[in-house]
Design a protein that fits this description.
The protein is α+β, with helices and mostly antiparallel strands and 217 residues long. 23% of the residues lie in helices and 45% in strands. It has helices at 2-34, 84-93, 194-199, and strands at 39-49, 57-65, 68-72, 95-105, 111-119, 126-134, 139-147, 152-159, 167-177, 202-216. Helix 1 crosses helix 2. The protein is globular. Residues 5-18, 182-187 and 191-195 have low confidence and may be disordered.
């Protein structure tokens, strides 16, 4: 009986320590992101959706704050409404639980911290997110998120010497359920395989967003 109690205490203390580690890492990242000031940046967007070919897009992002982001373009864009580089901020801030899951090495030998997040209520319907964070640079490197009804998506971030240490490139890979092609895209899409795409219940795709010309407002 004593052994069982000891094991239980060890498990509780380990889980508590893991939660504390995860919380401190995420809080540090949130503090950094909340210091990002108003700015503008140019976007080049390459979209690769299964069965479809969509032309490269150009857009402009205006950032006034985490809840005031505007992306303007004359074209359709298959990407998060608030800009991929800040999409994860809401998930982190509105978390109901965070679990430290150890570390792993990237291809360059950098140590990355693995954290699992269970979000609270959020407008995007994310129910679970796995993040890789570089603690040394205080940057998110990768996130895989699972949604309640719209499949999953993976975001990978590349950085350079940018304003507010914002990313230079974001790669998004996703599985979308019940994907439908917007009617206004009919003249802007390679028609090869379009009928097959209309019938698929789940569509896979990739979006690569390149950021350039960061400027303070």
């Amino acid at each position: 009986m004593k052994i069982i109690k000891i094991i239980a205490l060890i498990l509780v203390s380990t889980l508590t320590a893991s939660a504390q580690d995860a919380e401190s890492i995420l809080n540090k990242l949130v503090t950094k992101l909340e210091k990002v000031g108003p700015h503008t940046v140019n976007l080049r967007i390459n979209i690769d959706v299964e069965f479809l070919k969509i032309k490269e897009r150009n857009a402009r992002l205006v950032y006034n704050g985490p809840d005031d982001i505007d992306i303007s373009s004359d074209d359709f864009m298959l990407m998060p409404k608030n800009g991929a580089q800040m999409e994860y901020l809401g998930i982190i801030k509105n978390r109901s639980a965070a679990i430290y899951e150890g570390t792993e090495k990237d291809s360059k030998g950098n140590t990355l911290t693995k954290i699992k997040i269970i979000p609270g209520k959020n407008k995007d319907g994310v129910i679970l997110a796995n993040m890789l964070i570089d603690e040394k640079t205080n940057r998110i490197v990768r996130m895989k998120a699972f949604t309640e009804s719209n499949g999953s998506f993976v975001s990978e971030f590349e950085y350079g010497n940018n304003l507010y240490d914002m990313p230079s490139k974001v790669k998004l890979e996703f599985d979308m359920k019940n994907f439908q092609i917007p009617a206004h895209l009919s003249g802007d899409i390679d028609a090869v395989g379009k009928k097959n795409a209309d019938k698929k219940e789940t569509t896979t795709g990739k979006v690569v967003i390149t950021y350039s010309g960061y400027k303070k407002k």
